[in-house]
Amino acid sequence: MSRELLVVQRARKSFQTGKTKPLEYRIHQLKNLRRFISERQGDITEAVRRDLGKSENGTQLFETLGLEGEINLALEKLSEWAAPRMVEKNLLTISDEVYVQPEPLGVVLIIGAWNYPWAITLQPLVGAIAAGNAAVIKPSEVSSHSAKVMEELLPLYLDKDLYPVVTGGVSETQELLKQRFDHIFYTGGSAVGKIVMAAASCHLTPVTLELGGKSPCYIDKNCDIRVACRRITWGKFVNCGQTCIAPDFILCEPSVQSQVVEEIQKCIKEFYTDNPETFEDYGRIINQRHFKRLMALMEGSTVAVGGASDESQCYIAPTVLKDVTGDSKVMKEEIFGPLLPIITVSGVDEAIRFINEREKPLVIYVFSQDNKLIKRVIAETSSGALLANDCLVHFTVSALPFGGVGNSGMGCYHGRYGFDQLSHLRSCLIKQLKMEGVNSMRYPPHSAKKLGW
Ligand code: NAD
């Protein structure tokens, strides 16, 4: 019997005891998860430093603060989320009790990605625990230090049987995927997303797929380009561009391209100094494979800013590429690194066309002072989310569902959406065995006389 099968069986057995049903139990586990994060902050930051070269403050800002926020929200709202939800009734059911009762699904598989190894893996776990599920946690093997710390330390805080951590690579993930789960929550690239969904279909297991894609960023020539470029530089180069919601490429009119390049160059210098390679707030590419992939993506494009690299350190400078065309190499796949291509378009019409000719992205960014133009982009395109005049911050709003559409994913989470995503919303209708007379119309014979027609 494989280790993966044993782990899933143990989680299911434990779930079936009904242990996770009482809210007090879930609250206790959520508090333990919060305690894990605060007591083990040092282990977490050291692991992320080794995985991605990130600073301590960077890890707090982009990994654990949001996670703690999600846990606190779940603790505050759990009784409200888990309560029966009364619904509007119709004439037939006017005197009945009609409501939606969220109930746990069972055993959830959470497959994490490496780019924010803690936030991405543990945030879905908050929803899973809150909704009363067991969860098998599979951190990405690519962020190996974080995976190891998670495997060693999380079981000291959470119920070991209900929330086991399984480490390993592709073969372990595939072994897990053979097992029967009640939901699979996957974060990662679209190619593996298809493998996950195919495996899930064997058991009719529902999936949430948090995928990536190329998120476009349109800059209207009439906006405050200086401010726009500050926000874009931050959103693009944080975590060396290894952020699923980073702006992937810029669309702007030819007349403002050089100004955009100039402003981004100034911001790179301001944020990361003249030498980002030695600056603590600029990290590294996760591994040599991704380093080589990114260097190859640059081929054939004109470097306007940056371009320096050091393979031995997996370092690539914040880089802007100009006059890029839609069919160039860098536009063939999600960049997921510190390369920012600029493609010139004749205006918003062409930008919308350009976006709509491609897969639906995780986010569309628009920078403009013109509210009508923003609303037009919202109306005429589709994406997981749309942000105007800023980058990334929608991720921090727990009241917004976070997720993709089409090729960028399916399903969503954060806050109550995470709870609902990992619950079964069960319809309940309780009728009394009284007042049988009012039902006579529905019983045959359905004569016109009886129906009053
Ligand atoms: P990855 O290589 O770490 O893979 C993710 C998970 O899939 C890992 O746990 C891994 O074990 C498993 N896996 C890999 N290959 C597999 C296979 N052949 N069969 C079964 N399982 C397999 O991560 P990645 O795909 O490089 O992650 C980067 C992608 O994730 C980017 O596209 C990014 O945009 C996306 N992402 C999306 C979000 C989001 O919230 N939408 C967040 C972070 C990352």
UniProtKB/TrEMBL annotation:
What does the entry list under GO cellular component? Answer: endoplasmic reticulum membrane
Q: Where is the signal peptide?
A: none
Listed InterPro entries: Ald_DH/histidinol_DH (IPR016161), Ald_DH_C (IPR016163), Ald_DH_CS_CYS (IPR016160), Ald_DH_CS_GLU (IPR029510), Ald_DH_N (IPR016162), Aldehyde_DH_dom (IPR015590), Aldehyde_DH_NAD(P) (IPR012394)
Keywords carried by this UniProt record: Endoplasmic reticulum, Fatty acid metabolism, Lipid metabolism, Membrane, Microsome, NAD, Oxidoreductase, Phosphoprotein, Transmembrane, Transmembrane helix
Highest taxon above the source species: Eukaryota
Reactions accelerated catalytically: a fatty aldehyde + NAD(+) + H2O = a fatty acid + NADH + 2 H(+); dodecanoate + NADH + 2 H(+) = dodecanal + NAD(+) + H2O; 2,6,10,14-tetramethylpentadecanal + NAD(+) + H2O = 2,6,10,14-tetramethylpentadecanoate + NADH + 2 H(+); heptanal + NAD(+) + H2O = heptanoate + NADH + 2 H(+)
One annotated GO molecular function: 3-chloroallyl aldehyde dehydrogenase activity
Q: Which residues cross the membrane?
A: none
Sections of the chain in a coiled coil: none
Catalytic-site annotation from UniProt: 210, 244
Q: Where in the cell is it found?
A: Endoplasmic reticulum membrane; Microsome membrane
GO BP annotation list: aldehyde metabolic process; fatty acid metabolic process
Q: Chief location of this protein? A: endoplasmic reticulum
Q: What membrane topology does the annotation report for this chain?
A: Single-pass membrane protein
Record keyword Ligase present: no
Aldehyde dehydrogenase domain: residues covered:
8-426
Please state which protein family the record places this protein in: Belongs to the aldehyde dehydrogenase family.
User: Which PANTHER family does UniProt cross-reference here?
Assistant: ALDEHYDE DEHYDROGENASE (PTHR43570), ALDEHYDE DEHYDROGENASE FAMILY 3 MEMBER A2 (PTHR43570:SF9)
Q: How does it assemble?
A: Homodimer.
Protein name from the UniProt record: Aldehyde dehydrogenase
The species this protein belongs to is Gasterosteus aculeatus aculeatus
Lineage, opening ranks: Eukaryota, Metazoa, Chordata, Craniata, Vertebrata
